[in-house]
Design goal:
The chain is α+β, with helices and mostly antiparallel strands. 48% of the residues lie in helices and 19% in strands.
């Protein structure tokens, strides 16, 4: 996007199926100065780039002519909307497909939350229903001949808005829409004297639109519910006074007061107070976590016990809930391979049905002298089952429901391609520290070299590790603090990838270069004598991680730490086994520690791995099927990219949300098999939907040709298939991926 080109975003309402998004996309793409058009069905969002001189009003006019309501969302879209997708899969963001479908009636945003009969579509149903009933009554009071004219009037009045929308779509180069087929079928039915059935078809079409709208809005409720988790107001403290302000106006650095029972209004850090925090709205974790000063809290979390004063660290547009919503919405653009295939199929489906309909109308009368009226009627019935709306929506409806269900449980999947890839996983590679283990190792043993006081050993180790966020470094620094030792000053600290850390340390004897490294590296560098290496091997055999501390030519000693496996790790590995998925630890730790952890969990392992080694291991595992990599999203970034699906663990951190293909917001290993179960359930749901959509179409295609079913059954088949597929997809909203059904 150039500096002159600006990203704009609108809210578009009235889109009830995936074909609607294609229709809007194709119409808007024809406008001059418009590029990179993206339309999201579930979030009802249209975003695009506008070149200088291109008017947003032209975009809005085109969308309104198609029958949708549109309103711009506060000017140019935020920058995130224009960023390219960082997913490494072959996602299809193009809109070269041309899946035909419905153009729906005007749907005002004010209709949201209203009973169906108070909405614009509901009023159309009532009008057409009254006209149809009046025609029947008129026929009963007069005669069939006069009744015909009453039904004709009801049909014409009811089909007029449909015909208008069909004409607008035709003007925009989209001739194959259900509106155009409806119009042709209704007019054709009138010409062959089937006015009563034509009026009934128009009424059923209006009913179908209402049902589709209700189903689509139900599917969107999951995303809307996320937005409602954040309170609308917040109590801020300024100059010793408290006052209530809109939560969306909070700025970084302000202090908010969170009373017991209140939801936290913004991401922040606790300034004072200690309380149990229910983070289930954000992470899905139902057990409250006790937090105090210095701990981070998320917007939407519930303060369960005591008054808290929280310093705001993120603005409303960038809090955890907002980022989750944004990821769920943007995930719609990452289309599954199955969805791309359906789009390609649907491009030829409707033209093929139209062609078959023409053949049905022409061949029997011309070739066999059959009755024209009979075969025109059957051909018109075929037209009404020609819309692939149910087929087109079969995949995105399931994907949207799965994304929403996963978000409620702290499972984020970035789109349909990720869900499909996850469902096909056969092996999972786990990072060890912070993933299978708590990531909070504690020092268990200090082994100082001969003549070296433990305080000197800790002072040098603390100097080298100061400023590092690595779990082992934090364990060392915690022991230094607990021992009351002051770390020496240090500078030029740097990591030696896969080996350790070094720095220039100022000791009482002068400045020396010091290392905290693996025993093997220390032995190679002359910083660990043979007897100390043997001691390190013994400690590692006990499942401990050992580091050697030394300066140039001077061994200082060993520090041993243990990082216990998470409580649910063994259960998670057993569940993965029941799902037919292998699990392997890929760690840079020593083989003895890795073996001890792997044995307790029933896993395979590969130890002392450099980042390049992990990449090679992923490639080898991929030979046996799809591979998922679970890591922290930073140190394991290359491996996360190399895997078919990279999953980052972390409670709502930027890395967990933005680095990999999927994220587990709760630090629970058991959520890994839950992720697999959700993806597999989604793919099963998609297959059911496709079977349902194609099956109904096939059945009624045959029955229409044979004359068993007529026009009104045909429109019921089209509308019914769409509604059934959507309702089936909505079942995923109630799916509990944490339940092991194996």
């Amino acid at each position: 996007m150039t500096e002159q080109t600006r990203r704009h975003e609108w809210q578009v309402t009235g889109m009830d199926c995936a074909a609607c998004t294609v229709k809007v996309t194709k119409a808007v793409e024809r406008l001059p100065g418009v590029s990179d058009v993206k339309v999201a069905l579930m979030s009802e969002r249209l975003s695009l780039n506008l070149a200088p001189g291109a008017a947003p009003e032209e975009v809005e006019a085109v969308v309104r002519r198609l029958g949708y309501d549109i309103g711009q969302k506060s000017g140019p879209a935020p920058e995130h909307a224009a960023k390219p997708d960082n997913d490494h899969h072959d996602h299809d963001h193009d809109h070269d497909h041309e899946a035909p479908g419905h153009v729906h009636s005007h749907d005002n945003p004010a209709d949201r939350g209203k009973a169906w009969y108070l909405t614009g579509k509901g009023r159309l149903v009532i009008l057409t229903g009254i006209l149809l009933a009046m025609a029947w009554i008129f026929e009963l009071l007069t005669s069939v001949e006069y009744g015909y004219w009453a039904f004709l009037g009801a049909c014409v009045i009811g089909v007029a808005p449909v015909a208008k929308r069909a004409f607008e779509a035709l003007r925009m180069g989209q001739p194959f829409t259900i509106e155009s087929l409806m119009t042709i079928a209704a007019i054709g039915a009138l010409f062959i004297g089937a006015a009563e059935e034509a009026a009934l078809v128009v009424f059923l079409f209006a009913v179908g639109e209402v049902l589709e709208g209700v189903a689509a809005n139900k599917a969107r409720d999951g995303i809307r519910a996320l937005a409602n988790l954040v309170p609308k107001t917040a109590i801020i403290e300024e100059n010793g006074q408290s006052r209530e302000i809109p939560a969306e106006t909070l700025t970084i650095g302000q202090t908010v007061l969170v009373r017991p029972g209140d939801r936290v209004p913004a991401d922040g850090t606790i300034l004072s107070g200690t309380s149990g925090i229910d983070e289930s709205p954000v992470t899905g974790e139902s057990v409250p976590v006790t937090k105090g000063p210095g701990d981070a809290v998320f917007a939407g979390a519930i303060n369960a016990e005591a008054v808290l004063r929280v310093t705001v660290t993120r603005e409303a547009a960038d809090n955890t809930i907002s980022r989750i919503i944004r990821l769920v919405e943007e995930a719609e653009e990452s289309r599954a391979p199955t969805e791309r295939f359906i789009d390609r199929f649907s491009r030829i489906y409707m033209p093929a049905i139209v062609g078959i309909s023409l053949l049905v109308i022409l061949i029997p009368p011309l070739a066999a002298g059959a009755d024209w009226g009979t075969w025109i009627y059957r051909g018109l019935a075929l037209l009404l089952i020609g819309c692939p709306c149910a087929l087109v929506i079969s995949v995105p409806a399931s994907i949207a429901s799965a994304l929403s269900a996963g978000a409620k449980k702290g499972l984020l999947l970035k789109g349909g391609a990720v869900i499909e890839a996850t469902a096909n996983i056969r092996n999972i590679a786990f990072d060890k520290t912070g993933t299978l283990t708590w990531g909070r190792p504690e020092v268990t043993d200090l082994v100082a070299a001969a003549g070296v006081p433990e305080a000197d050993l800790l002072a040098v180790a603390g100097a080298v590790e100061t400023g590092s966020s690595h779990p082992l470094a934090r364990a060392v620094l915690a022991r230094v603090a607990a021992a009351g030792v002051t770390a020496h000053p240090a500078r030029e600290a740097k990591a030696i990838i896969g080996k350790g850390v070094e720095a220039l340390v100022t000791t009482p004897a002068g400045e020396v270069r010091a290392w905290v490294s693996s025993p093997s590296h220390a032995a190679e560098a002359g910083g660990l004598p043979a007897e100390a290496l043997a001691r390190a091997n013994t400690l590692e055999a006990e499942g401990k991680t050992v580091v050697a501390v030394f300066t140039e030519g001077q061994p200082l000693g060993l520090i041993a730490m243990r990082d216990e496996p998470r409580e649910d790790a063994a259960l998670a590995i057993r569940q993965l086994g029941s799902l037919g998925i292998g699990a392997t630890i890929l760690t840079g730790d020593n083989p003895r520690t890795a073996a001890a952890i792997a044995a307790g969990l029933g896993m395979e392992f590969r130890a002392q791995m450099m980042p390049a080694d992990k990449l090679n291991a992923i490639r080898q595992l991929r030979e046996a099927g799809g591979v998922m990599m679970i890591g922290d999203g930073i140190n394991d970034a290359p491996a996360l990219k190399q895997a078919d699906v990279g999953v980052a663990m972390g409670s709502g951190t930027d890395v967990a949300l933005e680095t990999a293909d999927a994220a587990i917001l709760r630090d629970r290993v058991a959520d890994v098999p839950a992720l697999i179960r959700l993806s597999r359930a989604t793919m099963d749901n998609i297959r059911q939907n496709i079977t349902l959509a194609l099956g109904l179409k096939a059945v009624f295609l045959v029955t229409s040709v044979l004359g068993i079913t007529g026009l009104w059954i045909a429109i019921l088949a089209d509308t019914g298939a769409t509604v059934l597929v959507t309702l089936n997809a909505l079942r995923l909203l109630r799916f509990d991926p944490s339940r092991n059904e194996a």
